[in-house]
Design brief:
Blueprint (H helix, E strand, L loop, with lengths): L4 H12 L6 E5 L7 H12 L5 E4 L2 H11 L5 E2 L2 E2 L3 H22 L6 E4 L7 E3 L7 E3 L5 H8 L3 E4 L2 E4 L2 E4 L2 H11 L4 E5 L15 E3 L3 H6 L5 H16 L4 E5 L4 H6 L6 E4 L1
Parallel strand pairs: 1-2, 1-11, 2-8, 5-8, 11-13, 12-14
Antiparallel strand pairs: 3-4, 6-7, 9-10, 13-14
């Protein structure tokens, strides 16, 4: 990957002024230790840019449940979570959190993990057991880590007064982006960005275009669901810029005028 010196300098200066409000980056557990992703985050840290990383643990939890003979049930993409399932979720989240921190810190201590972020406001989805949507995430630890020039690595099991709840990582990332007034919310994907039915990248999408793209089935499947979630986020945080990009193209997306993923904005 080669970055233009002029473009890199422009964005480096811009991002350095964002400070703790730079970006929240959400990555799935399966991509969290991808070598391109780790390189990109190390690169940012070396240039004194400290994003907040939020990770999931879906596939690792699935594997652990299968190993223990626990039945997997999902409703509307959310995992039904009994006490035994919650143990699997906590173990998977904690392990992935430590794995990311270890990978990032191989040469220097540039990150610190918060496997179970604390909340004082959530919505429990009772029909799914120990599952909740975060309404708020406490930011004291996040801000402290960034103030020490380290990257916070945050899991998706939320802690409410000592009680743990399984939460969707997109939800946790979105809430943190809102409470931290992040300039960017970035979703790391196994595809380059939002693709149309001919598998061509859509570089820019405006919030108002999302309903038409979904209703006419120009965008389908999981990406359509994500776009509708992003539409709701932008209704609440209209100044935020949301990006979807693959691990290997993250730096190109951040430090070039044309980018290489999809930007979604109001």
């Amino acid at each position: 990957m080669k970055l233009s010196e002029k473009e890199f300098g422009h964005y480096l200066d811009k991002f350095s002024h964002f400070g703790e409000n730079f970006a929240v980056i959400k990555v799935s557990g399966s991509l969290a230790t991808d070598k391109d992703f780790i390189f990109a985050i190390q690169f940012l840290a070396k240039n004194n840019i400290f994003p907040i990383i939020v990770h999931g643990a879906g596939k690792a939890t699935d594997s652990l449940m299968l190993e223990k003979g626990i039945k997997l049930v999902k409703k509307n993409g959310l995992r039904q979570t009994c006490v035994y399932t919650l143990e699997c979720v906590e173990y998977a989240v904690s392990k992935i959190n430590k794995d990311i921190v270890n990978e990032l810190n191989k040469n220097n201590i540039i990150s610190e993990g918060i496997a179970f972020p604390k909340t004082n406001n959530l919505e429990i989805i009772h029909e799914l057991g120990f599952v909740a949507k975060a309404k708020n995430i406490k930011t004291d630890e996040i801000k402290r880590i960034i103030s020490e020039n380290k990257i916070p690595i945050i899991g998706c099991t939320i802690d409410f007064s000592g009680d743990k709840f399984n939460a969707n990582a997109d939800n946790v990332a979105s809430v943190i982006a809102k409470v931290m007034s992040a300039k960017k919310l970035i979703f790391i994907s196994d595809v380059p960005g939002v693709l149309d039915l001919e598998n061509k990248l859509i570089s820019v999408i405006k919030k108002g275009e999302i309903p038409e793209l979904v209703q006419t089935k120009k965008i389908i499947g999981g990406m359509a669901v994500k776009l509708l979630e992003i539409e709701e986020i932008l209704k609440q945080s209209s100044k935020m810029e949301i990006q979807i990009v693959s691990p290997k193209n993250l730096l190109q997306e951040l430090f070039s005028y044309n980018g290489s993923g999809t930007i979604i904005k109001s």
